[in-house]
Amino acid sequence: MKRFVVSPHPMTSSFAHLRPGAAAIATALAVSFAGCHRVPEQACRTTPGCADQGLCKDHGACSAREGRCVVARNEDCARLKVCTGTGDCTERAGACVVGGDGDCRRSDSCANLGWCTQVGDRCAAGKNADCAGSAFCKSVGRCTAASGECAIASDADCAGAQVCVEFHQCRFEGGQCVR
């Protein structure tokens, strides 16, 4: 499944299938792109010409193909916020997508939310180790992988978290850490 495709008419891509954070990033990119339907033809005849365009920085369309600036290489995707944010760092068929666990592990979503393993076409919490190293685990006790997310599942999850140290919420009850 394609996540983000640069096209002459960007609003034709649907972002409804993305998670809320990823959808917000994709929507922001699409809105910023809405006023630009085509880059001047001369500017897109060479890859250096594409690299000078806003489409490259904002949308990954950094490579020239048939007179257009397009996403054509992994390096094109690596420049984007969707790469650092949600792991969509690999070019496939003109789109930036999650290409493996490595893309996920290098993303902010891994560090913050524990989404460090590729599950289908996205990054998710695939195992407890994904969650254990995340900011989510350290701060609020979401240290156990469950259905692709990091969840609080035991007193042990709470006991190692900042909420226990600072707010004495060290006991698991009803899906959260409580006093």
Largest sheet, strands/sense/barrel: 2 strands, antiparallel
Beta-strand content estimate: 15-25%
Strand order of the largest sheet: 1-2
What is the global morphology?
A: elongated
What is the helix tally?
Answer: 11
Task: Please give a structural write-up.
- The chain folds into two domains: 10-109 and 115-123, no CATH class; 127-178, no CATH class.
- Helix content is 39%, strand content 17%.
- The relative contact order is 0.10.
- The strands form five sheets. The chain has a two-stranded antiparallel sheet. Strands 3-4 form a two-stranded antiparallel ribbon.
- The protein has 179 residues and is an alpha+beta fold.
- It is elongated and about 65 Å long.
- The protein contains eleven helices and ten strands.
In terms of topology, how is this protein built?
Layout: H1 20-33, H2 47-51, H3 54-59, E1 63-65, E2 68-70, H4 74-78, H5 81-86, E3 90-92, E4 95-97, H6 101-105, H7 108-113, E5 117-119, E6 122-124, H8 128-132, H9 135-140, E7 144-146, E8 149-151, H10 155-159, H11 162-167, E9 171-173, E10 176-178
Antiparallel strand pairs: 1-2, 3-4, 5-6, 7-8, 9-10
